[in-house]
Every structure is written in C-alpha cells, then in structure tokens.
C-alpha cells in the first residue's frame, strides 16, 4: 500500500488519501468527484446528487454528470427533470414545446392541449318569474349544460352553459301558503272536534241505557208481586146457575 493511501477511512470510503479523499468505496456506494476550488476530492454516497446519474460496474460504482440543462437524469441522454427555464419532453429539456403541445408551468413539462367538453342541453325548466310558477302571464325558462372536461391553458374555452328564453303561461292565482296552511289546520281541528263530540254523545247514550236497565232491575226486585184475584163469574158452580 502506498504511504499516502489509508485503509482506515471514514464516510464509506474503502481506501482514501489525505490529499484526494476517497479513492474507492465500500460495496453498493457510488464514487463521485466533488470540486472544492481548484481541487477535486472523491466522496462515497448512497445515491448520486442532483445533476448526476449512477452507473454500476463490477469494480466500482460511479456517478456521472447529466447534460447541462438536466437537473436529474436516468442516463446522460435521458433527463427526468429539467433546470429552470426548460420544459421536459420525452427525456429532453426544451426551451419551447413542439407544435400541438403546451408548456405546463406547474410541472415544467410539455403536455397535450385539452379542449373543453360539455354535456348535452338539459330539458327546459318550468316557466317561472321571480321564483314562482303562478301569478303571471310572461316569464322565463332555462336549460343548462354540465362541464365534463375543463380546458387547459391553450385549449378551446367552454361555451355558455346556460340559456334562457321568454315563455307564456295561463294566468292563475297563487294560493297563499299561510292561508292554505291555516285552512288545513282549521279543518283538522274541526274534524277532531266533531269526532270528539260524536264520541261523547255515544258515551252519554250508553251510560243512560245502562242506568235505565239497572233501575228496571232494581224496581223488579223491590216491588211486591200482585196476587191473582179470582173471577167470580168463572167460580160460580153450575148447580147454582141452574137453580
């Protein structure tokens, strides 16, 4: 071993030197050169830093630089994220998106243009005026659409999703809600009152009949039995009649 090479290194290094840092890494770690001023020092990392991608070889795992416009990459020619000012498209970083695509400033990618999509018109609503369907002759009826797909920045905007038109209805009076409710309440009370009256009359009738029946039974028990008076004409003997 060279005198400047040490075996007892820190930070995942297998071998190192005081001047160059890590010279080799422990298994599964990536070797990468970091520039400090005019000097480059080797370090061993579990994953490659931003702007680098990892390559594995039998003898050593290394971190290689991405293209200048890539922030992260899978290989040197396939970016996964672009630096500021560039839009990602098919692994490349572009300043401007191709025709038929639009720049998404949120994801910094080139995406397909999405146009608005709506449903069919709904049926016309009942003819109304000021929220009522009675008490007028001319009113309005409306129909609506639902938005199925909102457009992207460069997509076709949604059309009007509501339509209104004049309508004519046969004039009719509106029933006042308070009056109608009051009438229903009065009818209910009257019905309950009549039912209660009939029930009380039936109860009184049954009580009177029961009282009369009990009185007749008591009279029959206390009144003495009448003696039978013989008929004189029937009791006369035939002989006396002949005499």
- The secondary-structure class comes to alpha+beta
Helix content: 10-25%
Total count of strands:
17
Order of helices and strands: EEEEEEEEEEEEEEEEEHHH
Please report the first level of CATH classification, the CATH class of the domain at 1-65: Mainly Beta
Query: CATH homologous superfamily of the domain at 1-65?
Result: Hormone Receptor, Insulin-like Growth Factor Receptor 1, Chain A, domain 2
**Major sheet size, sense and barrel closure:** 3 strands, antiparallel
Flag low-confidence runs: 232-243
Based on CA atoms alone, the radius of gyration comes out at 55 Å
* CATH architecture descriptor text of the domain at 1-65: Ribbon
Give the N-to-C terminal Cα separation.
187 Å
Strand content: 25-35%
Number of continuous helical runs: 3
Q: How does the overall form come out from the CA principal axes? A: elongated
Strand order of the largest sheet: 1-2-3
Q: Please, what is the average pLDDT?
A: 80
């Amino acid at each position: 071993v060279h005198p400047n090479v040490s075996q007892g290194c820190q930070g995942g290094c297998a071998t190192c030197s005081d001047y160059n840092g890590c010279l080799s890494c422990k298994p599964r770690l990536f070797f990468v050169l970091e520039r400090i001023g005019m000097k480059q020092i080797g370090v061993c990392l579990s994953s490659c830093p931003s702007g680098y991608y990892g390559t594995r070889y039998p003898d050593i795992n290394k971190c290689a630089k991405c293209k200048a416009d890539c922030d992260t990459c899978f290989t040197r020619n396939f970016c996964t994220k672009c630096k500021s000012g560039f839009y990602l498209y098919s692994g490349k970083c572009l300043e401007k998106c191709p025709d038929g695509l639009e720049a998404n400033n949120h994801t910094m990618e080139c995406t397909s243009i999405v146009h608005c999509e709506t449903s069919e018109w709904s049926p016309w609503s009942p003819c109304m005026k000021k929220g009522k369907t009675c008490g007028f002759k001319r009113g309005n009826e409306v129909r609506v659409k639902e938005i199925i797909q909102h457009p992207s920045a460069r997509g076709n905007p949604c059309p009007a999703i509501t339509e209104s038109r004049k309508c004519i209805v046969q004039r009719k009076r509106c029933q006042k809600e308070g009056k109608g409710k009051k009438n229903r309440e009065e009818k209910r009370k009257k019905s309950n009152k009549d039912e209660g009256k009939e029930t009380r009359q039936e109860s009184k009738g049954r009580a009177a009949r029961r009282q009369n029946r009990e009185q007749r039974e008591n009279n029959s028990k206390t009144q003495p039995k009448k003696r039978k008076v013989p008929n004189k004409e029937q009791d006369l003997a035939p002989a006396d009649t002949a005499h």
